[in-house]
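Box 3.1. Reading complex inputs
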Amino acid sequence: MNNKIKRILPQLLTILFVVFVFGFFTINAQVNMDNRGIDFGFGFLSQEASFDMQFTLLDYDGQDSYLWAYVVALLNTLLVSFLGIIFCTILGVVIGVARLSQNFLIKNSAAWYVEFFRNIPLLLQIFFWYYAALRALPLPENAQPWFGVTYMTIKGYYIPSMIWENLNVFMSCLIAAIVAIIFIRIYARKIQEKEGKQLPVLYISLALITILPLLSFLVGGVTLDFEMPVLKQLAQTSFIFEGGIALPPELIALVLALSLYTSTFVAECVRAGIQGISKGQKEAAASVGLTPNQILKLVIMPQALRIIIPPTTNQYLNLTKNSSLAAAIAYPDLVLVFAGTALMQTGKAIEIVGITMLTYLSISLAIAALMNWYNKRIEIKEK
Amino acid sequence: MNLSLNRIKSQNQMTNIYIGSALLILSILDVFLNSFFRINISGSLPGNLSIFFPLILGFLGLSYLRTEYSGYKFLDSLNKNINTTNFNAFLTLFITFAIIKAFPPALSWMVLDANISGDTKEACTGTGACWTYIKVWFKRFMYGMYPNELHWRINSAFLLVIGLGFVGYFFKENLKKYLALYYVVIYPIIAFLIIYYLISGGSFGLVWVETGAWGGLSLTFIVSFFCLIFCFPLGMILALGRRSNLPAIRYISVGYIEFWRGVPLITVLFMSSVMFPMFLPQDFFMNKLVRVIIAITLFEAAYCAEVIRGGLQALPRGQYDAAKSLGMGYWKMHIFVILPQALKLVIPGIANTFLALVKDTPLIFVVGLAEIAGMLALAKTNPKWLGFAMEGYIFAAIIFWIICYAMSKYSYNLEEKYKTER
């Protein structure tokens, strides 16, 4: 009996405490909102947003609803995170491997890269790129082309845009190729397990993924045109580029800072992962007669990835959360558009901040769940 | 590639070394003269060849130099460290040349062409950096809008707080058992009182200074310091809660931790500035700085809890079993056996959390506190000082880099120290 009380009493008290705190806040919120004449509700989401966004992926103008503004802003956030994740992975892997190089110079420059970018607050890095470095770029009329067709100017980065015809045919060809590759891989593994023969899977996949989409051009009537950015004079001294895609400087600064900053952490994860594999593994693999490539592919990487991937996903998550710093340089991301402009206009503080936090929370939890599933899958099955 | 290059080499090793070092020195000299004195000795070569000339030359030189063993110490260490393969040699040259190329412009911008004299914008005449800007604004970057003649109050408050932090080292043996009590309870309270009475004033004959005037780097320290000392006890409770075998407590702790870890700090700050006032009683006003400190503390406590949980999990089960078999209850077991050991394990982790906290603090600029990033934004848009954003951000970056680098090295040392002690 005594034991039961010991178990139940603390739990009851904790629950009471939580309920009390929430109740206190709710009652206060109710009183405050009554006094200010605000009512709680999500009806505002269907109202007209009537503000503009500088950069959007989907069509949006001021007549659209707050809900649509939310979707568009969320897409902007996801775009920054996506680009950041790609670049920080590439940089991080290169730097991480370079830190293990036998070359004294390479090893040390990689180490200094990591120490340098890791120890400066991300916000300052974003500000540096946006307010200092990118402001030193040339005006549109003075810009020299990069790679012949793209222009880096103070007003943004202009790249050619693609104009597709029958894009869906091309896409379905691509998907068909990918599905075929997956089936071939499964088939090849079966053959290998049964007969010990190895099919040249890599070459077959390469051939499939180039030939099928190419066929769609020749047979399926798919065409691809490029629209080049062209300099246009607005007034005596004012020029802009027209056509193509314009990436605003906010996006560039944000992606640069995020990927440079996060790549240092990814590099550390990669280094730890590769260092975590004992030398004996490599030697054992070599002594059974595997070639260096096979050792890397079949012995080192599967084990190293097991160490590398969980902390790296964590870094991706951090990057996604850090992309909210966009608000500081006025890139129209979720926080700026929704928790900033929309909140100012509607005054629905609780609903809007709540929605914003829940959005980030669900992204985090979704990635965490995916991570757990993956971890379970690759975990060493111990008996 | 390797084969053909080996064939060029003559049989005589000494000849190889002479040819190799001559080529290498020539290539480095070319880049050096080019970048420091603007003399282009390979200028007579056609077009793009002049750019690649030193790379090709140095590459050939290094491949001539590459031998198993030459007898010269310097050459052997060179071969072993930076010249093992063609690929390595290429990267070595590339990095060396990039450093030589980048050095003179950076030097001339930061030092040679820079200005530091005078105290108006007109003093900056050179093409380099304008450090006058930093000189004039230095006090603002450090102390925000805090009145100039009262800066000694901030300085002495910091010195006192730091000094009190080291008091624990001088405790006598018989006082050692109160060490934890001192750091977890007494020290935070004293530090709070010092900062409250000395920096904001209002009593003891000190002039009242509003928190709105606090700013600059000192505000960064105040915020991160308070958040750390407050989030630590909260994190400890949450970590214990998460490992508790009472389901309600465990789920509430897990929910709390996962919630705060799942949202970005910036939304938490928005919450503290626009949403939190709605949750307070009607005529209860809470200072913005206090709200921000509470928000960051709640946020950081979740991260702190995870670090402490790591320490708790790292303890062997035997410790729990031994404590229980001595008849200790839950609290006795944790206070006297588990926590002292676990906390020692997590000191490096806590240092890392603090590092992250310091790096996150500039974010409070977003809700309008004039922290160093805020002061920079203010100075940058001052009509008398337009166009010096670069200098400002470089200055702030250097300061933060020094602080964070020192802290990361310190936490690394702690980690090494505790690794060997176990």
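In summary: The CA atoms of residues 187 and 293 of chain A lie 23 Å apart.
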